[in-house]
Amino acid sequence: MEFLKENWIFAEVDLNKVNPITYQLITKMNQISELPVTVVLVEGSSESLEEDIKEYGPDKIITIKNDQLVQGNDLEMTNALDTLIEKTGRPNSFVFAATVVGRSLAPRLQARLRTGLTADCLDLHFEDDGTLVQTKPSYGDNIMCEIVVPNHRPQMATVRSNVFEAKKLNNPMTKVINITNLKVVQDKQLTISSKPLPQESAESITEANRIVAIGRGDKTEENLTNAKRLADKLHAVIGVTRPLTDLEEFDINDQIGQSGQSVSPDILINLGISGAVQYTAGISNAKTIVSANTDKDAPIFKHSDYYYVGNAEEFSKALEKALQ
Amino acid sequence: MDQKTISQDILLRMVKAFVKNEVAPYDMEIDHTRSYVNNLWSKVKENDFLSLMLPEEYGGAGFNGRTSAKVINEIAKGNASLAVTLEGHFKSVDQIVKYGNDELKNEYLPQAKNRIIAFSMTEPSGGSNPMGINSHAEKRGDKWIINGDKIMITNGGLAEIYCVLVKTAPDELSFFVVDNEMEGFEYGKQENFLGLTGVPVGEIVMNNIEVDESHLLGKVGMGKEIGDSAHDDARVLMGAVLTGIMEHELDLVTDYATHRKAIDTPIIQMQGIQRKIADIAISKETTKLLYQKAAWMKDHGQDYEEEAAMAKAYGSRSAVKAGDDSLQILGGYGYSLDYPIEHLIRDARAMEIAEGTVEKMRTAIALKEAESRA
Amino acid sequence: MKIVVGIKQVPETTNVKINEKTKNIDRRGISGVINQYDRHALEAAFEIKAKTNAEVIVMTMGPDDFVVSLQEALALGADSAVLLSDRAFAGADTLATGYVLSEAIKKIGDVDLVLLGQQSVDADTGQMGPIISEFLDISQVTYASKLDVEEGGLRIKRYLENIEQDITAKLPVLVTVTDQANDPKYVNIVEIAKSFEKEVTTWHASDLNLDADRVGQAGSPSVVRSISSPKEVVKDNYKLPDNPQDAADELVKILKDKNILVEDK
Question: Quick one: closest CA in A to C24, which residue?
Answer without folding.
Answer: A143
